[in-house]
Amino acid sequence: MFKKLLFVLMVALIAISCSQEKKEYTIAFYNVENLFDTIDDSNTWDEDFTPNGKLSYTADRYQKKLDNLSSVISSINTNTPPAIIGLCEVENRAVLEALTKQPKLEGANYGIAHTDSPDGRGIDCALLYNKDDFNYIGHDVISINYTWEEKYKTRDILHVKGTLANSDTLHFFVNHWPSRRGGLQVSEKKRVFVAEQLRLAVDRLQDKNPQAKIIIMGDFNDEPNNKSVTEALLANNNKNTENPKALYNLMYDLQQQGKGTYSYKNNWNMLDNLIVSNSLINNPDGLQTNHQAGRIFTEEWICYEPSEGVFLPSRSYAGPKYFGGYSDHFPVYFQLNKK
Hints:
This protein has helices spanning 2-19, 59-79, 93-100, 184-208, 227-232, 252-256, and strands spanning 23-35, 84-90, 110-114, 124-130, 134-142, 157-164, 169-176, 213-219, 235-236, 247-249, 262-264, 267-269, 272-277, 287-288, 295-296, 303-307, 310-313, 317-318, 321-322, 332-338. It is α+β, with helices and mostly antiparallel strands and 339 residues long. The protein has one domain (23-338): Deoxyribonuclease I, Chain A (4-Layer Sandwich), CATH 3.60.10.10. The strands form 5 sheets. Strands 1, 2, 3, 4, 14, 15 and 20 form a 7-stranded mixed sheet that branches. The protein has a 7-stranded mixed sheet with strand order 5-6-7-8-13-10-9. A two-stranded antiparallel sheet has the order 11-12. Strand 18 and strand 19 (321-322) form a beta hairpin. It is globular, with a radius of gyration of 21 Å. It starts with a helix and ends with a strand.
């Protein structure tokens, strides 16, 4: 009788221990390098991405692009698709639906948050979320309107709100800031302005709730130590603050180590950033992460080796030349843990 009782108690303790184990949720971002369909949209400059365009973008190449991207996304964090993944350089909702229907992603049960941006190239930001983990509440956009250059159109910032793991309400901001075309200094003004608009949106949330859980992700076309990020957005690597409203860049330390997500003239740039509010780091209950959580997905099979020991992102195109790769950026990700 005593042995049976002891056995029952041990089983109960094991069950309690398992129920109290931390559960991890992967949060990722990926610039997918021009995920276009093959259909000409008369409202955008997408003619190159058609079968008769200069890129000879056929249905087979489109399908290979979908196959490649689904392989990457499904492999982040040991072959478990992320609970949340922000994307940029997607043409429309149709390509997102096609991506989520790829065999390697069907089990992820992804929902889609997306709106069309006014960008002349026709590229947008989007968020995919596992509907089993994330309760989608709604989304809106921050439109970018330059008062000094009214005809210039860039990508909207996508803001998505929902609850993860029946726990904290999260605010995601998915970004794709203006490029460095014309040079870093010449183009910086535009990125600083975008960062200022994002900072205003963050301030509005935190004025209502200083403990608001905020995750900012995207291709900033700037690095963690650039003016747009540190001075306009006020995101840094200060590990000593207890202010829940502070913003911490999870990629800052990796950049300082010489790592990056995009290679330009054989120099690494950390253009893809993951930023969290301090309320997600110093959070005794619910969802939390840590200062060292930032990661870059750099498996050799998504790379090419231009010289011995050097591995760069294997891209789809370089100019008009087709390589059939994945993207010219590496994905970035981190883990949120629920106690």
